Amino acid sequence: MKTADIRQIDDYQWRIEPQGAMRVPAVIFASERLLREMDEKVREQICNVAALPGILSAAYAMPDAHWGYGFPIGGVAAFDPDKGGVVSAGGVGFDISCGVRTLRTGIKAQDLAGKESELADILFATIPAGVGSTGRLSLNKQEMHAMLEGGAHWAVERGFGVAEDLQFTEEQGCMVGAKPEYVSAQAIKRQHKEMGTLGSGNHYLEVQRVTSIYDAAIAEVYGIAQDDILISIHCGSRGLGHQIGTDYLASMAMSASGHGISLPDRELACAPINSEQGQHYLGAMRAAINCALANRQILTHLAREAWDRLFPKGTISVLYDVSHNTCKVERHTIGKREQAVFIHRKGATRSFGPGHPELPAAYRKAGQPVLIGGTMGTASHILAGTKEAEQRCFSSACHGAGRSMSRHQAKKTWQGRQLLDQLAHQGIIIRSPSLRGVAEEAPGAYKDVEEVIDSAHNSGLAHKVARLEPVVCIKG
């Protein structure tokens, strides 16, 4: 990215002052190296976001930011509904409520030693993964509506997990305000056999070893220690979320001029929050959040079933579950006044600091667990939300390593079989139904996750707690 008109605020914060149609500045959190390596399209997109009606404070890009649809992935923006603020389907993305759920297993690395391949085979046979994958459930219209309203609560009520899981899930497992009636028949059709599936792309179920503890006090609060074995599940709302994004992006683009909105980019299609269309999208999007929460809850149940075949039953517990493609209503201080705002986080994770009332009581003193996925060949991280993030960027942090290369480029650069062999040599066992999918998700196609994490930590977006290295990875 060219930096000629980007003003450096500190070592990890960069600012583009309003120009042209921009209503607010654009702020990028990154090391200088990450900033220079970002695609020029990130600058263009975050400046376009800064031009949307009703935007507050600034448009933000996280350290893992890269080119997305309309909003950059890693983009954050808050809008005031009373000042013409908008909701943008492109600002949430197609994989609505894609997120990470991390589980404690109750065992140490030495307990797993020698059983890795057997565990990989059991998990791969139990967890449906890949393009068009379907699960053991087939929901009729009535059950689909119940799931879209109930989220993870619906799943637990039907025997997929335990009530305690919900305590450590964002929104306590159910997003209020879901309106299944605003979800299209096509979206319902796409999803009715996909519950309890990973899907494809960058989605995974990964068995991980805690290799470093950076903050022992917070790690103790989260119930993790050196050499613990954890499981992380990364997936979202599958075909339903994608169809909702497709449906509303098209309708929002067509109606924007009727709302008096001049779009800097058609992919930024949006509608006023208080309009009928805006409310319909929010109702459908919240239903997709519940779909994702229910999906990760079912996958948790399946992971427990697989785990119980090798290890003591009842040892898996939920550390936390948090999404990174949403638009949420939250209360934040703007100037000197606290108010409700609509925060888009696309490829960005919520990062509530210590004391926040929405956090589980067990974590309130430490701050929210911020779960950052790596790649199948590099480390993931657990961080803690900070007070600084509340002040700097509406309690937001990065969500992963962030792509540095397109999937098409990755396929031309790597071969899936070669990658599997290379990762096996590193002690990482991969199971996937698609060698092409493995090539697309090559670790080398992503940014340096350690630098991304250090940028988030050093800029105050989240505080480093633990580093997790992959042992077994089930890829879609």
Provide an overview of this structure.
There is one protein chain. The protein is an alpha+beta fold. It has one domain (7-475): tRNA-splicing ligase RtcB (Alpha-Beta Complex). Helices cover 33% and strands 26% of the residues. The chain has 16 helices and 19 strands. It has helices spanning 32-37, 40-49, 109-112, 116-126, 141-150, 152-157, 163-167, 185-191, 216-222, 238-255, 276-307, 387-393, 407-413, 416-425, 435-440, 449-458; strands at residues 7-10, 13-16, 26-29, 55-66, 73-79, 86-88, 99-108, 204-213, 228-235, 270-272, 317-323, 325-334, 337-346, 348-350, 369-372, 380-385, 396-398, 429-431, 462-475. Strands 7, 8, 9, 11, 15, 16, 18 and 19 form an eight-stranded mixed β-sheet that branches. Strands 1-2-3-4-5-13-12 form a seven-stranded mixed β-sheet, with helices on both faces. A two-stranded antiparallel ribbon has the order 6-10. A hairpin with a 6-residue loop joins strand 4 and strand 5 (73-79). Helix 10 runs antiparallel to helix 11 (276-307). The longest helix has 32 residues, at 276-307. The mean pLDDT is 96.
N-end to C-end Cα span: 32 Å
Instruction: Note poorly predicted spans.
Output: none
Q: How much of the sequence is in beta strands?
A: 25-35%
What CATH calls the topology is tRNA-splicing ligase RtcB
| Cα shape | globular
Which structural class matches the secondary elements?
A: alpha+beta
- Tally the beta strands: 19
Radius of gyration: 21 Å
Biggest β-sheet description: 8 strands, mixed
Number of helical stretches of at least 4 residues? 16
- Global mean pLDDT: 96
The CATH architecture comes to Alpha-Beta Complex
Looking at CATH, the homologous superfamily is: tRNA-splicing ligase RtcB
Helix content: 25-40%
The level 1 CATH classification is Alpha Beta
Number of domains: 1
